């Protein structure tokens, strides 16, 4: 069961081992013109309470990397272990459980369902998990309050600004209280002021709530607040900068 107190509990007891381990991960797509290497032998570890930023030009493989690390896609070779689950060899049922419980994903395009209200969008993952109605309502209210949208619970996405929609997306990604959060260019469609607010929210979730986050971005301000910044170039992952992180992870 999901508890509104679990974020605080996690912050008080951060696990020592990595939540995410990728080792020699490649992703090759077959096309009419031949195989395309989107990701080449990428390796990294991510721990609880750590914000890792992936930077790189458009087409460098950032979205492919997030999809593979989060279990939305399987690697062509190499291993990805997410909270103890090996993505490459897990059956589909195990991957569904992984996506529902262990990872949250924030999309650049928000990815909200237009006919549902903000509260209903956040509630959806909990419905899929079969969470009891009273617990669902409490969790949705707690998350909307945390992202500053308690007064907008009944509004649909088209009635919200871009920044508000992204906040709903973050609340939805956190609904099942996953230990890992992935965000693909979360400030890419936002103005600088709104982007800074989303940035503050992500940093607070990671450093204050014990969530581990892997974020792709072009935003230098978000990079400056990361524990580590890694650069993806032509599908290859390497260190761009080392920040204030507590853990030594290879990239």
Automatic annotation (TrEMBL):
Q: Which Pfam families match?
A: ABC_tran
**Highest taxon of the lineage:** Bacteria
Q: Does the keyword field hold Kinase? A: no
Signal peptide coordinates = none
Question: What SUPFAM superfamilies does UniProt report for this protein, alphabetically?
Answer: P-loop containing nucleoside triphosphate hydrolases (SSF52540)
Could you give a GO molecular-function term held by this entry?
Answer: ATP hydrolysis activity
GO terms for cellular component? membrane protein complex; plasma membrane
Q: Which UniProt keywords apply?
A: ATP-binding, Nucleotide-binding, Transport
Classification via SMART domains: AAA
Location of the ABC transporter domain: 20-251
InterPro entries (UniProt xref): AAA+_ATPase, ABC_transporter-like_ATP-bd, ABC_transporter-like_CS, ABC_transpr_LolD-like, MacB-like_ATP-bd, P-loop_NTPase
Q: Does the entry feature the keyword Nucleotide-binding, yes or no?
A: yes
PANTHER family referenced in this protein's UniProt entry, alphabetically? ABC TRANSPORTER RELATED (PTHR24220:SF685), IMPORT ATP-BINDING PROTEIN (PTHR24220)
Q: What is this protein called?
A: Putative ABC transport system ATP-binding protein
Organism field: Leifsonia shinshuensis
What broad taxonomic lineage does this protein's source fall under? Bacteria, Bacillati, Actinomycetota, Actinomycetes, Micrococcales
């Amino acid at each position: 069961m999901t508890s509104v107190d679990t974020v605080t509990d996690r912050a008080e007891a951060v696990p020592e081992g990595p939540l995410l381990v990728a080792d020699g991960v490649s992703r090759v797509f077959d096309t009419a013109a031949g195989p395309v290497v989107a990701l080449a032998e990428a390796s990294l570890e991510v721990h609880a309470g750590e914000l890792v930023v992936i930077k790189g030009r458009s087409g460098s493989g950032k979205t492919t990397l997030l999809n593979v690390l989060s279990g939305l896609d399987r690697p062509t070779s190499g291993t990805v272990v997410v909270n103890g689950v090996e993505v490459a060899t897990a059956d589909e049922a195990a991957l569904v459980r992984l996506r529902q419980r262990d990872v949250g994903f924030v999309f650049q395009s928000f990815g909200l369902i237009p006919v549902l209200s903000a509260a209903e969008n956040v509630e959806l993952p909990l419905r899929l998990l079969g969470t009891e109605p009273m617990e669902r309502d409490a969790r949705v209210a707690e998350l909307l309050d945390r992202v500053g949208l308690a007064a907008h619970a009944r509004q649909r996405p088209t009635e919200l600004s871009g920044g508000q929609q992204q906040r709903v997306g973050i609340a939805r990604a956190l609904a099942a209280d996953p230990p890992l959060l992935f965000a693909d260019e979360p400030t890419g469609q936002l103005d600088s002021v709104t982007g800074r607010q989303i940035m503050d929210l992500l940093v607070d979730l990671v450093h204050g709530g014990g969530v581990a986050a892997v974020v792709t971005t072009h935003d230098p301000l978000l990079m400056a607040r990361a524990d580590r910044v890694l650069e993806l170039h032509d599908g290859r992952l390497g260190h761009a900068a080392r920040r204030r992180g507590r853990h030594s992870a290879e990239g």
